[in-house]
Design brief:
The protein contains 3 helices and 37 strands. It has a domain at about 1-115: Immunoglobulin-like (Sandwich), CATH 2.60.40.10. It starts with a helix and ends with a strand. It is globular, with a radius of gyration of 25 Å. It is about 5% helix and about 50% strand. A 5-stranded mixed beta sheet has the order 2-9-8-5-6. It has a 4-stranded antiparallel beta sheet with strand order 12-11-10-37, with no helix packed on it.
Amino acid sequence: MKKQVIYFMAAALAMPVVFTSCTEETSDTTPMPKIITMGVDAENIIQLNDTLNITPQLSTTEGVSYLWTLDGDSVGASSSYTFIANETGKFNLSFTAANIAGLATQTIEIEVRKVFGGFYVINEGAYPNPASFNYYKNNSWAFNSFDEFSAQVDYTFGQTGTTAAVSNGAMYMVTKNAPVLSKINMQDWTAETVIDSRDLISGGQGQSICLIPDNKAVLTTTRGAFIVDLNQKAIVDTLTNSNTTDAFVNGDYMYMIVSDSINVYKTTDLALVNQAVAAAKTGFTKTEAGDVWAADDSTLIRFVASNPTEAEQIALPSGYKVNYNEWAYTPTGLTAAKGKNMLYFGSYNGWLANTISAYDIDNGSVKNIYTLEGANDFLYGSGIHVNPETGNLYLVSTPDYRSFAIDIVTPEGEKQERIVYGDQTTLWYPSRIIFD
């Protein structure tokens, strides 16, 4: 029976003219099948050795035969299919449903990664060790020491990792020293250099990255911002020639902090739209209302979605200012809430940035929702991250620059868990959490 189905489908595919001339009902009133939904997400990413069950919904099953192909090879002939992730990579799974009236076909891409469903940590690293990354899932770290990391990841990153951006199964990681930009394949953790020498960025140090259309990126550095062609692995243009820190794309516009002021550019061609529109020390984040935010000490900077090139400046209540690292670049800790019109930021209690404050955008009020539990604990690196699935806050802290922890806290300020990250000898120096 399976061979008959495959022969029927092959014949149907070989003679499209037969079906293109048919109406949706033949003379015996049999309707042609249509695929209403494949029954899976738009992005189908699973972990190695996991399975993905696909059960398409059809407009009709009357007289329908089925064919499943994986990268062109026949793998099934039933109404549903279970994909088993035996190896990492990207796979094209096609489903065809056909009867006497015609056929319908749809293809989905399935990406199998070494790990999925947890979070990455971008590590600065402790000299002389270079930067690294780690992964946490199911109460376990992928690496418990730098030696474990270097044994499994056959690549040497630059020193002092800062942040990373994810696109199409790749993570682009920035380090302050060469190689300043590296590409990590999230499927198997192989890595390659994108931008090697600091000479290519006017001798500056890498700081951050912003992905833009056409598989390009803006790499920010202490000596300016540079446009990178990620396919060619080359710098193709210079955007600024002075210290440039954070950059962020929101639809038609890109926002960038250049010499402590915000410039606004068109995303499509990076034409400058508004220069030095407002002073800022750290940014950016986007609320669910579509507004983009940055901060300048005790002032919040807002770009309203309806007027995205002009800045609104909002003074925080007395005694509050947004924490940022004034001594060296670290990614922003100013972070938008999930499901609420609210911003989180680190604020100071004495000399230490150990308090998480929430700014209610609707009424302009600020309240402290959580204080780090140790008397000497303070936020490290970005410090504050919001899980895009749960809305929980992931707070990175240290009491002594040697031992680190990640507190998972609800939006209401209730601590759920403390994850110990390394010890006095590991010295990861975590800079940024990246949720996959």
